[in-house]
C-alpha cells in the first residue's frame, strides 16, 4: 500500500507515465501521415494499416498480457512489457522503410503495451484503498485522456519543425524515468505456473482478432476483395471456438485464459460493446481529419495538430467533468448524453468539408464531438469494471482493454476504408465525364488516380500535364463528398451506441 505521504502518489504517477506514452502513439502519428508516406516511400493504405495494426496487436495480446500477471507477477510483467515497448520505440525511431516502422511500432510496441496496460490497472488498484483508489483511477483516466489530447499537437510540432522520429524517441525519456523509480511498484505473488496457461486459448484469441481486422483492411484494395469474406468468416468462427474452448476449460476445472462468465453480466457486456462503438468513431475521426487537412486543405502537420486541438481540449475537460457529474447523475444517462452529443458533432462535421474548408470551419463540429467523447470516456471504464467481482478484476481489465483497442483498430480500418472507397466511387466517373480521360481505359484512369491518392498527391497522375489542375480539382471535390458520407456513417454508429446504452441496467 502507498502509506508514505511524501511518496503517496508515486505508484499512480509511474503507471500514468506508461499509459501516457502508449496513448500518445495512437494520436500523435496521425498528423504525420503525409510525411510518412513521402519519407518512407510508401502509401496511405500501408500507413493506415500500420496505425490499425498497432491497436490490433494490443487488443490481440491483451488477454495473454493480463494472464501473465498471474504467472510472473504484476511488477515483473509490467517491466518486461516496458522493455519490449522500448525495443519497439528504438526500432520505430530508426525506421528506414514501412516494414521497419511496422515491426517497431505495431508489433513490438503493441506486444509491450498489451503487457503494460492491464498491469497498470492492477498495480494502481493494489496500491490504494477507499477514496485514494477513486482519486488514483481518476488521475489514471485523466492522464490517458491528456495523452490523446496533446498527441496531435506534439506530433505536429516534432513532424513540422524537427522530425516525426522524435515522437518515438522522446518516449525513451519516460521509459528511463519509470525504470529509475520502479522500486515504488509492489510485486504480486504468482498464483499460476506456465503449465496452467491456456495455450490453445491464446492462439485462438490472437489469430481470430487479427483475421477479422485484416479482412476489414483489405477492403481498401479491390484486387483482394475475394479474400475479405474468407478472413472475416474465419476470424469470427475462430473467436466463437475461443469462447467455446474457454467454457469447456471452466467446466473441466482448468484455468481459462479469461473468465468468459463476465460476458454474461449485462452491465459488463453492454459496457464493453459501447466501448467498442465509442472507439470506432474516435479512431476514424483522428485518422480522416488529418488526411483531409493535409491532402485537400494543404496544411502541414503542426497546423493539423492545431486543427485537432479544440477537440482534444474538449475531450480532456469533459472526461474530467464527467467523473464529477456521476455523483449527481446515473452513469447510464451520462453515457446516453455522450453518444447523442458526439453524434451531433459528427453530423455537423459532415457538412463542412469542401475544397475551401479552413481550420476555423471545423472547430464547432470538433468541439461538440469532443464534448460527447469526453463524457463517454469518463464513464465507460468505471461502469464496465464495476460489474466485476474483486477476483475477476484481472480478467475484466484484460477484456475491457482488448475490446477498446479492437474498437480503435476497427475504427481506423473501417473508416479509412469508407473514405477510400468513397473517393474511388466518384473519381473514375468524374474524370470520364469531364473529358479528361484522353485515350486511357477506365482501368488505366483508376490505377493512375489510385496511385495519386495513395501517395497523398505527391506524384502526378498519369494524364496529360495540361489536364492535371482539372484532375486535381476532381480528386479534391470527390474527397470532400466522401468526407461527408463518412461522417454520416460515424453519426449512425454513435446513434447505435445511444440505442444500446438505453438497455444498460441502472446500478444499485
Automatic annotation (TrEMBL):
UniProt topology in membrane: Multi-pass membrane protein
Spans traversing the lipid bilayer: 12-33, 45-65, 77-101, 107-128, 135-158, 164-185, 197-218, 224-246, 267-293, 299-321, 333-356, 362-385, 406-427, 486-504
Single GO molecular function: transmembrane transporter activity
Keyword ATP-binding included in the entry's annotation: no
Matches recorded under Pfam families: MFS_1
Gene3D superfamilies in the record: MFS general substrate transporter like domains (1.20.1250.20), Multidrug resistance protein D (1.20.1720.10)
GO annotation, cellular component aspect: membrane
PANTHER family: MAJOR FACILITATOR SUPERFAMILY MULTIDRUG TRANSPORTER MFSC
Protein name, per record: MFS transporter
Record organism: Methanobacterium bryantii
